[in-house]
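Materials and Methods. Structural model of Xanthine dehydrogenase family protein molybdopterin-binding subunit. The 694-residue sequence of Xanthine dehydrogenase family protein molybdopterin-binding subunit from Micromonospora cathayae was retrieved and submitted for structure prediction as follows.
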Amino acid sequence: MSTPTPAPGAVGAPRPRIEGPLKVTGTARYAADVPVPDLAHGWLVTASVSRGRIRDIDATTALALPGVLGVLDHRNAPRLNPAAGNYFGPDGSLQLLQDDVVPYAGRPVALVVAETSEQARAAAAALRLSYHVEPHDLDFRLEHPAARPGSTAFGPEADTGDLDAELAASTVVVEERYRTPEESHTALEPHAATVWWHEGDLYAVDSNQGAFSVSEVLAALWSMDRERVHVRSEHVGGGFGGKGACGPQVILGSMASARYGRPVRIVLTRAQVFEATASRPPTDQLVRIGADADGRLRAIHHRPAYALSPLAEYIEWCTEQAKILYAAPAIRTQLTAVPLDILPPASMRGPGATPGSFALESAVDEVAERLGLDPLELRLRNQPTVGPVSGLPFSSRRLVSCLREGARRFGWAARDRRPRSRREGPLLVGTGLATTSFSAGVFPSTASITAEADGTFTVAVGASDIGTGARTALTAVAADALGVGPEQVRIRIGDSDLGMAWGAGGSRGTTSWSFAIVEAAGKLREKLDGPDRPVTATADTTALIDYRPQRERQTFSAVFAEVTVDPATGEVRVRRLLGMFAVGRVINPLLARGQLVGGMIMGLSMALHEESVRDPRTGRQANADLAGYHIASHADVPEIEADFVPDYEPQDPSGFNGLGEIGTAGTAAAIANAVWHATGTRQRTLPIRLDRVL
Ligand code: MOS
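The predicted structure was written out as tokens:
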């Protein structure tokens, strides 16, 4: 066989998901579907109080029920390594059943193990738990006495220019507070794992966003070699950041399997997904923006607070857009963390940027209102030529193209900018827009590619497909890199044994895995001159990634929304959404559009519906189910479109950037700005509930 003839073209083609037939025929096995002999079932028991200590867990009745193998709690559970942690250091949220402390309502405090799931559930209901209850603190606000500066591990705060002087010299100063609630990822597939030990090795089929990183955390918790931990996650029913960490299902499964010498399966209930996995923290954000009469911004001050748990460091990085979107002589950001007795938060789709750009882009709209300027025109007048804080050039910044093309398609020019200027029968009609940016880049990954004797290629990469179509996108990337058609490429993903890889998160999965695949393909093509098959080439991008900041690498969006508001009921309906995106070279426009349309619906959901409501007395979530926690569906927006402006990321070997999160990030402000246009009233607190409109 000779060197493959380049046959580019798989990248850019709209191919449907290659695993689609497996999913719609029920052939795809998820973490709770994998057949395993001699399986036992675990049922989580979670704390019903927000702070305190466990006084007693009386298992007498539970242990006497049929099929019950045992109850694990802090008194008899295997000991875990307390140093195990995450990016920021040791993470107390991983230390399940290690002591009697209850740090938040919903904390797993016991696991009942039985022959069947029903028996485990019945026994869990028969456990009698009592607590020494201590007062809890859920009093989230920017001025909380325990508020402290947020971690700067993602980048330093901005403090350029003379903020006070620029504000004093401004014709208009908008100074407002914006609030977003605690929200929950609520992936369709609940967290689930099937776990067993064999000859000292740990095996898990787990629902997560990165099998390799879960294997690393499990290895740390059990103080064992990572190579002896084997995590698979072939099919995952959504994640949105809520499955980025090593979840309670797999930690407790590994403990129960070790204790009872059987494979153990744990599937969280919907309520447990809400209360025991992770949430997007609430935010309380002060924004001050000063502008000249001609609409030139002079000062931007963004001071957001977010809640976190004392168990683990976390960053809800709301301040990045204030450093990227607009040119202004003075820019200051001050991220503030407020430790409370809450579920430890985690990244949720568009972390930081989603609540952060809601505040910033609402405030910019308020500046336009105060100046009597078209909000599109205000944005166009303040576009920076270099990073407003970093001074670095942008590697690609097609935001103006997004704004102009979006405005053209949306019909923005015909808009009367006065609020309450459009009515249709009893309804008020309004339109609004917002922009955002989202950081892009790559993280180290490995990949290997084998040229098989039959002329096909097997690509192995520790990637994760959480429903986004990563498998299909990476097949196209590999095909082009090998110079063959995608039908000649088979791909293996979702397995920690495939080697080190970044997870599906931070909008960096596809770029990181593609980089490794392209490297491996290059090496393989050099080896293909010889006659031997199969032949394998591997690549590790760790040493190839240059982290020195030389250019601002960001994706951009402009989102346009049209809403109707019923002044009698306060009901807001989103009638149209249009998002224009600059996300580098698009690998698969069909899947990319689906990702962005889904993201925009999630942004709509945030704007109008999503809110984890906690009972202030108990601290427990009062709406920990999908009846009380409302999420939007496709039917909630009859006309939705996402499209791309031509773009190419020069810092990426293939021109790619991630697009997993930017769809969600920019949408809420566009809707809130449209609601203002319809009603004349600003909505600075999400969600925009009926009672807030009336
Ligand atoms: Mo994303 S919030 O990094 O899954």
